[in-house]
Amino acid sequence: MAGTAWRARDALDLLATLDMTSWASLLGLLGECPVLPAALTATIERRAGAVSATAFEFIATSSEIGEVRAFMGKLLDFLTR
């Protein structure tokens, strides 16, 4: 199990009831090939409106890693608002 974070994805389903965009973001980050979902960027930027559930970018730059860090730093706030 160690080093296989994607196996924990099914356990995240409860989070969907708290915040759907945070849940979708975590699924993308915890995939076998982690990606930066459009939902994560929309959450960080506090954008309102529809976000494609299938839109993503591969994590390839230090600024994208910064977005992931910013999201993880605010995740508890997103889930408890």
Structural description of this entry:
The chain has 81 residues and is mostly helical. It has one domain (5-80). Helices cover 44% and strands 7% of the residues. It contains three helices and two strands. It has helices spanning 20-29, 38-44, 62-80; strands spanning 35-37, 56-58. The protein has a two-stranded antiparallel ribbon. Helix 1 (20-29) crosses helix 2 (38-44) and helix 2 (38-44) packs across helix 3 (62-80). The longest helix has 19 residues, at 62-80. The N and C termini lie far apart (32 Å). The model has no long low-confidence stretch (mean pLDDT 89).
Could you give a short description of this structure?
44% of the residues lie in helices and 7% in strands.
Give me the Rg, rounded. Answer: 12 Å
Beta strands, count: 2
Oligomerization state of this entry?
single chain
Protein structure class: mainly alpha
CA-based shape = globular
If you average the pLDDT, what whole number results?
A: 89
Strand order of the largest sheet: 1-2
User: Count of DSSP helices?
Assistant: 3
Order of helices and strands: HEHEH
Which band does the percent of strand residues land in?
5-15%
Low-confidence stretches: none
Query: What count of domains describes the coordinates?
Result: 1
The first-to-last residue Cα distance is 32 Å
Biggest sheet character: 2 strands, antiparallel
> In which range does the helix fraction lie?
40-55%
Structural features:
44% helix, single chain, two-stranded antiparallel ribbon, mainly alpha, 81 residues, 7% strand
